[in-house]
Amino acid sequence: MKILVTGGTGYIGSHYIIEQIRNTDWEIVSIDNYLNSSPRTIDRIEKITGRKIKNYEIDLRDKKSTLKFFEDTGNIDGIVHFAALKSVPESVDVPLLYYENNINGLLNILSAVEQFQIPYFIFSSSSSIYGNVKKLPVNEKTPMGYAESPYAHTKQIGEGITEHFYRKNKNLKGISLRYFNPVGADKTGLNGEDPINLPTNLVPVITQVASGILPQLTVYGDDWNTRDGTCIRDYIHVSDIAEAHIKALEYLMSKETSRTDVTSAREEGMEGKSTREDKHEKNYEIFNLGTGNGVSVLEAVNAFEKTTGVKLNYRIGSRRAGDTEAVYSDNTLTESRLRWKPERDIEEMMRSAWKWQQHLNKE
After folding, report:
1. What b-and-e string marks burial along 54-77, b requiring 16 or more CB atoms within 10 Å of the CB?
2. Three-state DSSP state, 51
3. What values do phi and psi take at 352, rounded to 5?
4. What pairs with residue 245 in β-bridges?
5. How far is it, in rounded angstroms, from Cα 55 to Cα 14?
């Protein structure tokens, strides 16, 4: 098996590569133009795994260069498409950049999937597609809400594009994975979130404040309708997310149940006792990737302080444009279909993130 990872030097992409090397014998190649990542990540992956990964510095918005990569590389069995800009506040400031980058990159990758008949594809979506919901937890049947940010809207559009693509290309298989809030770092402490610009995600801001790199953490609002007034999110360890992608690819690659087998099961009154029939009736599916637990911003701060013994300098600020009040996942479908369950708790997320930040401080 040869797997292409787009955005392979990014936060989630690099952790996926590490877990794929640890858990499979699949060949792997990466595309990343280093728009929001660093070439040093390739060296970090090699130090952790002992494997040197080839990264192709290609801008996926360039269709000609993207298709030439596929022509030159030869058969690819699966694509895990992480490449996208992901900052909610940045997307509010520069919306057209987010639409151009996130949508055009996806369109060009799917053009390659169709032209080169690549069997398996995973699209990185986001829980932000749910918007402000009235009923929690959310599951895959929860309707998409109003997109509070251009970033969220690009993921809504991306899912729609992917779904319609697979309606047409029924001989190919795809999955969209809706991430909740990835945090943490590799267990070695040698790879983690390392944004080129000032961080906007909560945990890297926390670790940089704890290190003295940033002077203060701002909690954006304490007047939300939540148990302590701060936003609630479903934080999930990045290595758990990485492992879920391996499960998703294995799911797509698994042997299809024949129509004869399905008919026999119906005749024997066994329909509903297995997910196999449903699994192979569809060539495109959607799954949530969360822990099923909502954690508020202040609870995340307290978890960091408790785990590390480091007190944080933070203040309460006003609400931030693009934020939603609360969201966390119902994992029932994912656990039953993909046979995946997150293993790492909020303390491990904070512990590993702090270990990574301490390593960065020494680099």
Report:
1. ebbebbbbeeebbeebbeeeeebb
2. coil
3. -70, -35
4. none
5. 11
Q: Residue 289 CA to chain centroid, in angstroms? A: 8
134 C-beta neighbours (distance < 10 Å), count: 6
- Which mean pLDDT values do the consecutive 10-residue runs of the chain (363 residues) have? 97 98 97 95 97 97 98 96 95 97 98 98 97 95 96 98 98 97 97 87 96 96 97 97 98 63 38 42 93 97 97 96 94 96 97 97 88
DSSP H or E segment with residue 185: none
Name the fold adopted by 2-362. Answer: Rossmann fold (3.40.50)
> DSSP string spanning 197-258?
S---SHHHHHHHHHHTSSS-EEEE-S-SSSSSSS-EE-EEEHHHHHHHHHHHHHHHHSPPPP
C-alpha 274/C-alpha 340 separation (Å) is 17
Q: Where are the domains of the chain?
A: 2-362
Name the 3-class secondary structure at 182. strand
151 given a catalytic annotation = yes
Q: How many angstroms separate the CA atoms of 172 and 162, rounded? A: 12
Q: Which residues contact 343 (CB under 8 A, 6 or more apart)?
A: 237, 240
- Mapped onto helix, strand or coil, the DSSP state of residue 5 is strand
Q: For residue 219, what are the CA distances in angstroms to 213, 228, 229, 319?
A: 17, 12, 10, 8
Which of helix, strand or coil describes residue 329? strand
| 240-282 pLDDT tens trace | 999 999 999 999 999 553 333 333 333 444 344 434 444 446 9
pTM strictly above 0.85: yes
The catalytic position among 16, 120, 151, 220 is 151
Compute the 3-state secondary structure of the chain and give helix, strand, coil in percent, each to the nearest 5: 45, 15, 40
Which two three-digit tokens encode residue 353? 């993130």
Take residue 129 and report the two structure tokens written for it. Answer: 């597609």
Secondary structure (3-state) at 179? strand
- Give me the sign of the Cα torsion angle 70, 72, 78, 82: negative
